[in-house]
């Protein structure tokens, strides 16, 4: 397995500027506790991202790849995560109230949700057919 190298982006403004310029690969970005409220990151690759404690409330994360990302304690209230990939994602203690998670993919063994959260009730899809 190859080593995952951190993305050199250092702040929210730089991330949003690069996204606006057409970049979509933000693999391994490290932006804990940042304010990305209502940000439009539709279709971005944020796999392996460190976004613990980030405020992503109201953000457009439709179709975003968040595989193996750390979103522990992130605020995703009202965020659009429809069709997102959440396999291996750490969502423990994340705020998911009113988040649109319909058709988002998860792995029942590796995706970690807040206590009491039901991915099936939220309209999510298991990556396994069993």
Strand content: under 5%
Q: Which strand order do you get reading across the main beta sheet? A: 1-2-3
Oligomer class: single chain
The profile of the biggest β sheet is: 3 strands, parallel
Q: Give the C-level CATH assignment.
A: Mainly Beta
Radius of gyration over alpha carbons? 14 Å
CATH superfamily: E3 ubiquitin-protein ligase SopA
Overall tally of domains: 1
Number of helices: 1
What is the molecular shape?
A: globular
Low-confidence parts lasting 5 or more residues at pLDDT below 50? none
| Helix-strand topology string | HEEE
What is the residue-mean pLDDT, rounded to a whole number? 94
Record field, number of beta strands: 3
CATH topology label: Pectate Lyase C-like
So, CATH architecture? 3 Solenoid
Between the first and last Cα atoms, what is the distance in angstroms? Answer: 27 Å
Write the layout of secondary structure elements.
Layout (H helix, E strand, L loop, with lengths): L11 H9 L64 E2 L18 E2 L18 E2 L4
Parallel strand pairs: 1-2, 2-3
What does this 3D model show about the protein?
- The chain is low in regular secondary structure and 130 residues long.
- It has a single domain, classed as 3 Solenoid (Pectate Lyase C-like), CATH 2.160.20.80.
- It has 1 helix and 3 strands, in the order H-E-E-E.
- The protein has one helix at residues 12-20, and strands at 85-86, 105-106, 125-126.
- A 3-stranded parallel sheet has the order 1-2-3, with no helix packed on it.
- The longest helix has 9 residues, at 12-20.
- It is globular.
- The mean pLDDT is 94.
- This is Pentapeptide repeat-containing protein.
- InterPro entries: 5peptide_repeat (IPR001646), Pentapeptide-BTB/POZ_domain (IPR051082).
- Residues 103-130 are annotated as: Disordered.
- It comes from Scytonema millei VB511283.
């Amino acid at each position: 397995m190859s080593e995952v190298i951190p993305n050199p982006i250092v702040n929210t403004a730089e991330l949003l500027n690069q996204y606006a310029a057409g970049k979509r690969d933000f693999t391994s970005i490290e932006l804990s506790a940042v304010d990305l409220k209502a940000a439009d990151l539709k279709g971005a690759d944020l796999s392996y991202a460190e976004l613990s404690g980030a405020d992503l409330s109201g953000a457009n994360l439709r179709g975003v790849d968040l595989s193996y990302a750390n979103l522990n304690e992130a605020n995703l209230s009202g965020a659009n995560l429809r069709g997102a990939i959440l396999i291996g994602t750490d969502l423990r203690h994340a705020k998911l109230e009113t988040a649109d998670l319909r058709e988002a993919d998860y792995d029942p063994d590796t995706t970690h949700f807040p206590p009491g959260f039901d991915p099936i009730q939220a309209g999510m899809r298991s990556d396994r057919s069993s």
